[in-house]
Amino acid sequence: MGHRNWILIVDSAYPEQVGPGLETVETNADQLDVVRTVLTTMKASIHVRPVIFLDAELPFVPDQKAPGISAYRTQLASVLHDYGVQSRLHQSLIDEIGKDAAQYHVLVLKTQLAVPYTSVFIHLDCKYWSAENERDLRTAMSSQGSQ
User: Fold this and answer.
1) Which end of the chain is more exposed for a tag (fewer CB within 10 A), N or C?
2) Which runs of E-coded beta strand occur in 3-132?
3) Binning pLDDT at 50, 70 and 90, where does residue 144 land?
4) Considering the entire predicted model, what is its pTM?
């Protein structure tokens, strides 16, 4: 996979989205183990880096309604401590995935977790070419009159 692709590591109730670029795999595994494995693989990659999104709803889910959610949040924070993490509303992320799947590959890894709003959305970005490099390139091109 390359930049602009997505890897989603989701709970067991995540909807099976449809679209030309969507691929869903049942992992039958623990969600945090899958997150660790994916991030370890990406760390060794020379071409992609993860941009991580979590559901904005996650911090607001109470233990009384979702037993174990506080422990999960603590464990997930530990797994993601080396990464910048952004939060977005769950439906917003699902909508973006649906649009991107029309052009790019989206790998959905379903896990055995049964706790709400625990999806980890990983948007792949280019590791060897930064947004700053791209901006500088576009500035240089526009100063030369290139399209």
Assistant:
1) C
2) 6-10, 22-26, 48-55, 85-88, 106-110, 120-126
3) confident
4) 0.90
